[in-house]
Amino acid sequence: MRRTVALLATVLALAGMTGCGGDGAEPGAPKGATLVLDFVPNAVHSGIYAAVADGFYREHGVDLEVRAPGESTDAPKLLGAGKVDFAILDIHDLGIARERGIDLVGVMPLVQRPLAAVIARADGPVGRPRQMEDHRVGVTGLPSDEAVVESEVEADGGDPAKVDEVTIGFNAVAALAAGKVDAATGFWNAEGLALRERGVPVRVFKVDRFGAPAYPELVLTTSRKTLAADPELVEAVVAATRKGYEAAEEHPRSALDDLLAANPELDRNEQQAQLQALLPVLHPDPFDDAVLREWAAWDLRHGLLEKPLDVEQAFDQSG
């Protein structure tokens, strides 16, 4: 009850906020800030909701509004234009945004490993990544999916050019369940679990086991302008978010309750399964410079980036 009341109070206090930075706040009042998620709220965001419910942001002087992305949300552009203060970005989107001239900076990893994978039916012909050759493999249409397939097939000694890639959008679960494809790209913590829940036998090939480095899939990101103009705000949000993920790691049931209290439409069993699967990679360690450089080289090699990324500019590793 304490967490529910605290979270409700925070939501009510934030209701009606439209701008960033909390301009016009009384002296000593928490500074308003906005954070847009990468996807609809789910278990990977549990540390954020735990930090809100436990008052960690307020303890650090921040009134944080957490927004789910809308259909037209383009988080990199919102950050670049100063419409929001922070966003959770897929690390590939961060690199692509910088290449397009949007000066964004990753300030904290949310997960320590890639979530991307190729998922194959266990009763089908794809027993290992190289066996995707001459078989139908569903992809969303995002360039990162092609990179995952290419990396895995190459690393397993196969020829990616022989894979019959079929664009299925974000319908991997339905396509695999119906047998329309033999394998598909997806997140091992989401689609992989959803298929098992449906009783569909699957094999999951995680990309960091087949060619990719152990890069952090999701990154708390801000703009260079915000980082330069208000480093104290960035430091406070990072510190509170890290504390929230530490709490989620130590008390996952409470973190799950916080997530569901804020998003009652979510299915408890589904989110509990996802959180349980994610716990080993949710530990809020700082960035690893060597891993970031390996990731940038991997993205360049697989065509996600057109030129080498300046890792020192793209990520704030001071914390």
Question: Summarize this, please?
Answer:
With 319 residues, the protein is an alpha/beta fold. It folds into 2 domains: 2-113 and 215-314, D-Maltodextrin-Binding Protein, domain 2 (3-Layer(aba) Sandwich); 116-209, Periplasmic binding protein-like II (D-Maltodextrin-Binding Protein, domain 2, 3-Layer(aba) Sandwich). It is built from 14 helices and 10 strands.
What would you say this structure looks like, in words?
The chain has 319 residues and is an alpha/beta fold. It has 2 domains: 212 residues, D-Maltodextrin-Binding Protein, domain 2 (3-Layer(aba) Sandwich), CATH 3.40.190.10; 94 residues, D-Maltodextrin-Binding Protein, domain 2 (3-Layer(aba) Sandwich), CATH 3.40.190. It contains 14 helices and 10 strands. It has a 5-stranded mixed sheet with strand order 2-1-3-10-4. A 5-stranded mixed sheet has the order 7-6-8-5-9, sandwiched between helices. The protein is globular, with a radius of gyration of 20 Å. The two termini are 34 Å apart. The N terminus is likely disordered.
